[in-house]
Design goal:
- The complex is a heterodimer of chains A (about 300) and B (about 120).
- By secondary structure, chain A is mainly α.
- Chain A has 13 helices and 2 strands.
- Chain A has a two-stranded antiparallel ribbon with strand order 1-2.
- The longest helix of chain A has 18 residues.
- The two termini of chain A are about 45 Å apart.
- By secondary structure, chain B is mostly helical.
- Chain B has one domain: Serine Threonine Protein Phosphatase 5, Tetratricopeptide repeat, CATH 1.25.40.70.
- Chain B contains 6 helices and no strands.
- The relative contact order of chain B is 0.12.
- Classes of the chains: A mainly alpha (about 300), B mainly alpha (about 120).
- Chains A and B meet through helix 4, helix 11 and helix 13 of A and helix 1, helix 2, helix 3, helix 4 and helix 5 of B.
């Protein structure tokens, strides 16, 4: 990609992230949408247009006077900043990474909004259940240069795939995004995986019939009864790879489910699913394996 | 000073702030499939939750305002910790995480809803 193309691609992407991104959306944008479609739901930037009624952070606050979403317990958001994928910055959290340095008293940051001790479920005019900002309406910013590490690259890939899944693979916003993103060379090879992440759930027959010795970009073969567990239990390759134990599913879903087997879980009494299943029979292993596929949105319930 | 002692000496509002920051870290770890970090934080979270439960009047109720936190794992962990105190509201939180497809924690939310319905998980 030439320097000029690179600059163009960067401009295309960054302007959609700007607080004044609505300036680049045609005033007659609704003409290009299906009748009855809410324009602001397709072009979220329109919602960020100036409004005299938009709340501001109260005076006396470090961000006093700046616009805020006013959308719940998240506190003020800084205009112009892209919402990170599901995170909020609470300042220095280094004590968590080094438990010996754990300092109990919070510094500087006022967490009072999260520490009401009234003991009541939020109600009335205050923030209530789900009255937060919800998932971000736009993907996080994409680095133009290929991140050096695999984990750095995957961080971007995960963020885009999850955003597409929430927004809808065939929504106009996603189409526009993929159009602009296509000019980022390093990300192209991840397209099949990012897109297949939003596949609708399918029947078990459909997932099993797709298994093949021929690889398919964006998809991987997955074991219903987890491969690692069966190996540890001494099963043979033939048993592990039995046709009724294999399904072909989106690559990133495969990674997520495989990772889930190693994560501690309340559902399994504080064990990982893999440890929980260690002494269980085939029926329970299969039940958990199928349920994981359903809960990940891969298999129809 | 031992961590357990520090937790015992902490104010409830500090424990809530710590709970929140652990969950935010867990969310990032889960998003990037860093299981060992996620699991270490899980155990730490158990200690904080146990500490809140042990306080007069079961101070896990101080986690209820976290139901509206923007981070899905904070909401999930707060709902799980308060299922016994506010079952209907906590369940709504889990359902919303599932419906919004806030993966990866949406998978846990979906599983917990089934486990509760089928009686495989009884909150205490």
């Amino acid at each position: 990609m030439s320097a000029r193309e690179d600059a163009y691609a960067r401009a295309q992407q960054t302007r959609s992230m700007r607080p004044d991104a609505h300036r680049w959306i045609r005033p007659d944008a609704a003409r290009f949408l299906k009748p009855g479609t809410d324009v602001e739901s397709v072009y979220p930037a329109l919602e960020r247009k100036y409004s005299p009624n938009q709340p501001r952070v109260p005076a006396g606050n470090p961000d006093g006077g700046q616009w805020t979403s006013g959308g719940g317990g998240s506190g003020a958001s800084v205009p112009g900043s892209t919402q990170p994928m599901g995170n909020i910055d609470f300042g220095d959290l280094s004590e968590i990474g080094s438990l010996g340095l754990f300092e109990i008293a919070p510094r500087e940051r006022d967490n009072s909004v999260y520490t009401q001790l009234a003991g009541d479920v939020p109600e009335g005019d205050g923030p209530g259940i789900g009255h937060n900002e919800g998932p971000p309406l736009e993907p996080s910013e994409i680095p133009q240069q290929r991140p050096e590490t695999s984990s750095g690259r995957m961080e971007t890939v995960w963020a885009i795939a999850r955003w597409v899944s929430r927004t809808g693979r065939y929504s106009p916003a996603v189409d526009i995004f993929f159009g602009a993103k296509d000019q980022i060379e390093w990300l192209k090879s991840y397209d099949p995986a990012m897109k297949s992440y939003s596949d609708p759930p399918r029947t078990l027959d459909e997932l099993q019939s797709r298994v093949s010795p021929i690889s398919e970009r964006g998809y991987e073969d997955h074991h219903v009864e987890e491969q690692t567990l069966l190996e540890r239990l001494g099963f043979t390759r033939r048993e592990i790879n039995a046709p009724n134990n294999k399904v072909r599913i989106p690559t990133l879903k495969h990674y997520e489910i495989s990772g889930w087997y190693g994560k501690l879980s309340e559902e399994f009494g504080g064990l990982t699913p893999r440890d929980y299943l260690r002494d269980k029979d085939a029926a329970e292993r299969r039940r958990v394996g199928l349920k994981a596929l359903i809960d990940m949105g891969v298999l129809k319930p | 000073m031992r961590r357990q002692t520090k937790l015992e000496m902490a104010r409830v509002e500090d424990l809530v702030a710590f709970f929140t920051s652990i969950a935010i870290k867990q969310n990032t770890a889960a998003e990037n499939l860093r299981n060992s970090e996620y699991n270490r934080l899980y155990r730490l979270m158990e200690e904080v939750e146990a500490q809140l439960k042990s306080r007069d009047g079961d101070q896990r109720r101080a986690l209820l305002p976290l139901y509206s936190h923007p981070n899905p794992t904070v909401r999930f962990k707060a709902a799980m910790a308060t299922l016994a105190l506010a079952p209907r509201e906590a369940r709504e939180v889990l359902q919303l995480i599932k419906d919004r497809k806030e993966f990866p924690i949406a998978m846990n939310a979906s599983q917990m809803l089934s486990a509760i319905d089928e009686g495989r998980y009884v909150p205490s």
